[in-house]
Specification:
Distance between the termini: 30 Å
Strand content: 15-25%
Helix content: 25-40%
Low-confidence stretches: none
Structural class: alpha/beta
Oligomer: single chain
Mean pLDDT: 89
Length: 249
């Protein structure tokens, strides 16, 4: 969860739950979490996902959450809840063999320079990176503007960005396939109504009950498993998000 969204709800959105399940599955197959000596979660927000992965790491391994928006109070409160994780607002020291950039690059104006700097300065030789970004500029919406997104990505554009930043794509594909036509319809309705990027939007909340949350999470998780299986075979299905598992050579 982004810091901008923290406090709006105490219930995790099915999107977040499905993304966690996807990240675990993508990284567990190669034992990347279990054998990681250093995990760096960039743009980590409230550290919910990183803390779940930390549970699967060796207790002696290092786990760092880096978010430029952390205040001193944020770092102190998060460290109290997650004592096995370091929280930093500035660029951390050392190198890491597992990096997470989950819905981060769209927040950065110079995404190529930012990613190349991370790979050059923080990735250990042979490190893996799991990257997700919002897909398809054609569905850029008021929600993207509200969240501080500069852009959304095509598959070809995301692949080029990763390659030019020093990463080799091992597998990639789309996520949240069912949500893509829903977002496209929402954007079309906004345009018909004449609503622009600066128009107000409702806060991002999730207040559905457990049964509805489980049902939607289940659908998105099954989709993610299919996308992961196809992505390992070089087949990238379009979705509302793009994902890539990469390696730094």
């Amino acid at each position: 969860m982004d810091l901008i969204e923290r406090g709006l709800t105490t219930t995790r959105h099915p999107w977040e739950l499905a993304r966690l399940a996807f990240a675990r599955r993508a990284l567990d197959r190669g034992g990347l979490v279990a054998r990681a000596r250093g995990l760096l979660d960039i743009g980590s927000g409230d550290a919910w996902l990183a803390s779940r992965l930390r549970e699967r790491m060796d207790p002696a391994a290092r786990a760092v959450c880096w978010d430029a928006n952390y205040s001193a109070g944020d770092r102190a409160s998060l460290a109290a809840v997650h004592p096995g994780i370091e929280f930093v607002a500035g660029r951390p020291s050392g190198r890491f063999d597992l990096l997470l950039l989950l819905d981060v690059l769209e927040h950065v104006d110079d995404d190529r320079g930012f990613l190349a700097g991370i790979v050059n300065d923080l990735a250990a030789p042979g490190a893996h990176a799991l990257v997700t970004v919002p897909a398809w500029q054609s569905v850029f919406s008021r929600r993207d503007t509200h969240l501080g997104h500069f852009r959304r990505y095509s598959t070809a554009g995301a692949r080029a960005l990763l390659r030019r930043s020093g990463l080799r794509v091992v597998a990639d594909g789309g996520l949240f396939h069912a949500l893509l036509p829903m977002r496209a319809a929402s954007v079309a309705i906004d345009r018909l109504r004449g609503l622009r990027d600066g128009a107000a939007i409702n806060p991002i909340t999730w207040r559905r009950g457990p049964a509805v949350t489980r049902a939607i999470t289940g659908v998105l998780t099954v989709e993610a498993r299919i996308s992961l299986a196809l992505g390992r075979r070089g087949i990238a299905l379009p979705g509302l998000s793009y994902w890539a598992l990469c390696r730094h050579e």
